[in-house]
Specification:
By secondary structure, the chain is of the alpha/beta class. About 45% of the residues lie in helices and about 10% in strands. The chain folds into 2 domains: about 90 residues, Up-down Bundle (Chorismate Mutase Domain, subunit A), CATH 1.20.59; about 250 residues, Aldolase class I (TIM Barrel, Alpha-Beta Barrel), CATH 3.20.20.70. The N and C termini lie far apart (about 65 Å). The model has no long low-confidence stretch (mean pLDDT about 95). It binds manganese (II) ion. InterPro entries: Aldolase_TIM, Chorismate_mutase_GmP-bac, Class-I_DAHP_synthase, CM_dom_sf, CM_II_prokaryot, DAHP1/KDSA, DAHP_syn_2.
Length: about 350
């Protein structure tokens, strides 16, 4: 054997020894994690990490510099910590690892998550009874079972129309009852949830409140389905954790709704993150819907975006419909008028028929 081969042979052995040792180390870290979990101690201990690094570098005889050694060991520490985080994710109640089968939510006979396409339609904001009743009648004609409408509107500017409040909920309930529809409406204040239960079939938590943890907890405490929208700058992981807040309090009936995220692109109001749909379907057992109105902000994109949502596996589509969008108090650029809505539904029906 040549000298080079001999040295390479020793190097191969050292590699295997390092491999064995870092895995042995990982097992010890897991053991420590288990002990800490029993004593409800935090897993990450920066003081302990600093002590370990100091001990290691003080024994360092080179040829590696201390900085290099610190860098290598920090990577090993981080990997061990991430190993424990993977265990943690396995335990999320919304995860498919925890519950492999789809969650199906029955709302007024619409079984969301059952593999069929469902629609949530209605005006952006409740402006009056006539307006809501006109939309309710139109959506009923297409077999849509869920009527949306904003009574409490969290607007970007405090000077924009803030909604009719409880009066808006009363109007929604009346119009929904007349057409046998279920009501989906946003609640922005944890203190309003109890009162809203009399009017709503689904509590909507809007994008701007996705990380309003007190609101999430309050929605988790009641027995009413929740439609949770993704925050405008929320990662998928943050979105999933927001849903976990709700389920951790006992409420298992959660619908996730992708509604576009903020990017540098200006051609649309937000950027519809269409790949979020299959990711959420893989990672969680919850139904996933797509709000085509707020993600695109463009009437001409509602239909193609809705088709894309269904093609990629969404359980439903949410869109805004207004009898006269030009005079709407909010989102006038992207709501559909009634004839446009009829065409939209015809096209969607064609698509879902062809998919069968
Ligand atoms: Mn709107």
């Amino acid at each position: 054997m040549s000298e080079l081969d001999q040295v390479r042979d020793r190097l191969d052995n050292v590699n295997l020894e390092i491999l064995q040792l870092i895995n042995e180390r990982a097992k010890l870290v897991q053991q420590i994690g288990d002990i800490k979990a029993k004593q409800s101690m935090k897993r990450f201990d920066p003081v302990r990490e600093r002590d370990m690094l100091d001990q290691i570098t003080s024994s360092n005889d080179g040829p590696f510099e201390n900085a290099t050694i610190e860098h290598i060991f920090k990577e090993i520490f981080k990997a061990s910590l991430e190993l424990q985080e993977d265990d943690h994710r396995k335990a999320l109640l919304v995860s498919r690892k925890k519950k492999p089968e789809n969650t199906i939510i029955d709302i007024n006979g619409a079984t969301i998550g059952d593999g069929n396409v469902h629609f949530v339609m209605g005006p952006c904001a409740v402006e009056g009874y006539e307006q809501v009743a006109t939309v309710a009648k139109a959506i009923k004609q297409h077999g849509v079972k869920l009527l949306r409408g904003g009574a409490f509107k969290p607007r970007t500017s405090p000077y924009d129309f803030q909604g009719l409040g409880v009066e808006g909920l009363e109007i929604l309930k009346k119009a929904a009852k007349e057409h046998d529809l279920a009501v989906v409406s946003e609640i922005v204040n944890p203190a309003h949830i109890e009162e809203a239960l009399d009017y709503l079939d689904v509590i909507q938590i809007g994008a701007r409140n996705m990380q309003n943890f007190e609101l999430l907890k309050a929605a988790g405490d009641v027995d009413k389905p929740v439609l949770l929208k993704r925050g405008l700058s929320a990662t998928i992981s943050e979105f999933i954790n927001a849903a976990e807040y709700i389920i951790s309090r006992g409420n298992k009936n959660i619908i996730l709704c992708e509604r576009g995220i903020r990017t540098y692109e200006k051609a649309t109001r937000n950027t519809l993150d269409i790949s979020a749909v299959p990711i959420l379907k893989q990672e969680t057992h919850l139904p996933v819907m797509v709000d085509v109105t707020h993600s695109t902000g463009r009437r001409d994109l509602l239909l193609p975006a809705a088709k894309a949502a269904i093609a990629i596996g969404a359980d439903g589509v949410m869109a805004e419909v207004h009898p006269d969008p030009a005079v709407a108090l909010s989102d006038s650029a992207q709501q559909m008028d009634i004839p446009t809505f009829h065409r939209f539904m015809e096209e969607m029906k064609d698509m879902t028929e062809r998919m069968k």
